[in-house]
Amino acid sequence: MSKESAESIEKAASLWLVRAHSNEWSAVEQSALERWLAAAVEHRVAYLRLERAWQQSDRLRALGAGHASLTPPPPGAWTLTPFFGESEQTQTVARPVDTRVAPRRARTALALAASLLVCVATAWYLYPEILAQMQGAHGTSYSTPIGGLAYVPTSDGSRITLNTNSAIHVAMTQSGRQIQLERGEAFFEVARDPSRPFRVGAGTRTITALGTAFSVRRGVGNDIQVIVTDGTVRIDGAEPSQGTADSAILAAGAVAHSTSAGTLIEDKPLPQAEEQLSWRTGMLIFRNESLLQAIQEFNRYNTRQLVVDDARIGALRIEGNFRATNLDGFVHLLEAGFGLQVEPARQSHQSVTKIKTVGIETGLSSIGTMKVSAARPGWRPACSLMGSPDDEEPPHYPSDADRADCRMLPVIDRLGR
Amino acid sequence: MSRALDAWFTQEILPHEESFMRFLARVWPHRDEHNDIRQEAYTRVYEAAQVSLPQNAKAFLFSTARNLMVDRIRKERIVSIRAAGDNDFLEVLIDELTPEKHVSAGQELARLARAYDRLPARCREVFWMRRVKDIPQKEVAARLGITEKAIERHLAIGTRLLAQYMSVNALIPRQERQPHIQPQQQDEQGKR
Fold it and tell me: What interface predicted TM-score (ipTM) does this complex get?
């Protein structure tokens, strides 16, 4: 056995690897590489290890989606899409939610929030009645445009994150904290203060929290969805006098859907519940959802709306992680991965993009058997195809190993090559 | 045959690197030897797999490492109390066998982002242009005003660091990070 050090082998392997992936790579060089690999198993394992890292770095494209610039964003700035910087409202501070990933911006936002807090606290101390008047009587409204994401620090130390196309009204008094969710969706991280209950009104319902993190989303009419990620909250109907039937206590991991008919509560593992809040980082995560559901989600974040004109297409299953504002990437995936045709609608005044059925005639059966095979070890297909529900047989994959790979997610931008 | 074996190695052994390095950190006090042990264990696993594929790849990797550590202890007569006497060391397979494959794609992406953010600035830049924006090497070299060779060196060191950062949380020692980057400075200035 040669006595090369692991480090020198690794250095050599890294240079081979990089050259093999450069634009100029000849057959002569390839055979030289083969010889080097065959010379010692040490060489081969070192090469394979770095090759895997190289292939993993392919997935940087997924992070880069939406970053148009030729230079990378500063370290930690990943969760911010360009969209978030364009906030038209002046009173909101956009902020990344995962502070580990985005320490710098978060720190700025925190500093801002802190200084705001100091101002408010000082004012509170000096002129309590003025503030009570300012805040208690009128409160403050915040809103986001379509595709926007905003962070609202409140005077009590709570934090509110507003999703796309959302509006809230915040009223802080000495006896309570009242938030009205006028439209859209918001995530609340509530500072503990038992003397002032934190209440969120949404349609006919009120959600009450003490030292808790949860989200509220408004649907059609008075339908709402509540997701709890920390502590407990109580959800009440409009008139408490009607009895307690419409009242429910939700613990962390609960996902509650309230309609006029009542409240349905799912208890999920916390990571799953949190996944539904991935919008806080600008991402949409779909797990075996129908294309129709996925499109409805996308439509919330983009002024250009997608329309499906065939129920069979809408029923296709889809999995993946996507940047909410990267509509082009998503459309590209549909075309490349599902053989669908996406065309701009005729009426130019409405920016509607239509997903047409062309190609699907031969497609539906072939979609079920379409192969998403792994071209190289470690390569991940851009999407998984779950087959349409009316397919009797499960989709066919080349091998079990590939099937396992297909269930793994995303990197839509790979298709952009 | 060797292609299939390469694929097996990449899919069944390499994904365990993070927990493998965590295991090493716990049982082998000489940190500077971790990479050597990893390399040697990988080599032994690959050699054994050429003869026949082990049933449980992860268990095989860990027991291979354990055996070679025992060899080292015997040969070098450096008896590390921690390595030799620790129950952990002999019973590695119990808590180390958590299923790796189920790390969510999101977590994987976050880990990649963190690793990428730790790269030296120039490395980050080169990786971004080459891997994310898919700009040909020649053009990247022209844009940054450095040679293609220098681009290759940045990519090479970057790949090594990514592999390291994605499996070990500890920083690579400084002096190891610098030398590859240093020589380019001259090209860069020369071209500007």
Answer: 0.79
